[in-house]
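[Meeting: bench + compute handoff]

Bench side (C.D.) handed over the final construct sequence. Compute side (W.E.) agreed to return the predicted structure before the next meeting so the bench team could plan truncations. Sequence as handed over:
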Amino acid sequence: MDLTLLRINLFFLFLLFASIGFSQQLVADLPENNGMSQVRLSKIDCVFTNYVHSNKLPGSVILIARNGKIVYHKSFGRSDIENNIPMTNDKIFRIASQTKALVSVGIMILQEEGKLLLSDSLATYIPEFKNAKVAEKVKDKEFQIVEPKRAIKIRDLLTHTAGIGYGYGPAASEWKKADLQGWYFAHKSEPILESVRQMANLPMDAHPGEAFVYGYSLDILGALIEVVSGQSLELFLKERILDPLGMGDTHFYLPKEKVSRLSVVYSQSNTKLIRSKEIGEEESQGHYVNGPRISFSGGAGLLSTSSDYAIFLQMLLNKGIYNGIRILSRKSVELMTADHLNGDHYKNVRFPWGWGTGFGLGFSITNDLGDSGTLGSVGEYGWGGAYHSNYFVNPEENLLVVYFTQVIPVTLNDHQKLKNLVYQAIID
């Protein structure tokens, strides 16, 4: 064989193996093999051990992966303080709004199959929204009901610009009467689609496309997935995302054999952590264990482990593929991780929580590093959950971080400190 031809063949063989390796399973590796310092990462240990000792956190699990390798995976404190059960890396957490990213991926899957378009009207699939109304504030607690300026599009729901909050807007009294306030659905004995149909009859907080209003958008999209796919949201996510990726510990409601692994929720009160109780439940593990198991909340319903969620994030970081299984196309991931605000489509709509930040299709996006004033990169994306969990993904650094804990409510600076501690450990 000609030497030049041999070199060309070897080059393409290298590219083939590199692409295969890039989608392999997450495995542990030394930080130094992936441009990070083990010594510098150990600073995380000190900070999060101190959070536990000072009764600011009951416990937590932190997973860091770079270049598709797990360089840090440690647990701190206890998952159950009263029973002195230590936190371990395999504990299961209520991830609340981190569910939203999986449902966003579900919508993109349906678009790739030609079953919907992001530009489609919501009312095409859930007709009750043809009669949607908007509550405009007049003064104090008074409001007037008006027609929306345009229909809600699927894209509006993905970007939280549909105008639908969590029931605390100008017409909060009407949402309260309908028993539709807050993000919690695990106690409900009706399918999510029925709850969403009730929402369609309640006044929205803003006109579609005119404001970032965080709320039931992904719960509505979860119901839309059920309509379009003909499956429950639980089964759709299991068949299209969870099972293909091997996310075997991610559920809407826990199987009985896994109940002992569910981390307890606490509330922070002064210098104490108090065992929390879910809505109407005496047992603090709540309806995720003993509930009716009927409502599948696309906005806040999933339970997961740090390892499972890291797999999901690695799939996105790999542009839609993991361990040889393609979930999404590269182009769909690129659209999801682009900033959809601050442009001509959503004029004058800005992301309200954080400088230098926009919003994509499922998570916030860093678009100006100097304006953000924090360590990171342009294009970094992430989100968190009501129980104080958090994640971020940095494509430029080929990095992902999963941080799980279970405290609500809580006021801490741990999210930003963790980000600083991760980035200061990069040495390449």
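W.E. noted at the follow-up: Confidence is low (pLDDT under 50) at residues 10-22. C.D. will use this when planning the next construct.
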